[in-house]
Amino acid sequence: MNIIEWINNWYSSLCDGDWEHSYGIKIETLDNPGWIVKIDLAETDHNGKEFIGINTDHGDDDWIQCFIRDDQFIGAGDPTKLEKILLIFKEWIVSS
Question: Among residues 59, 62, 74, 87, which one has the fewest Cβ atoms lying within 10 Å of its Cβ?
Answer without folding.
Answer: 59
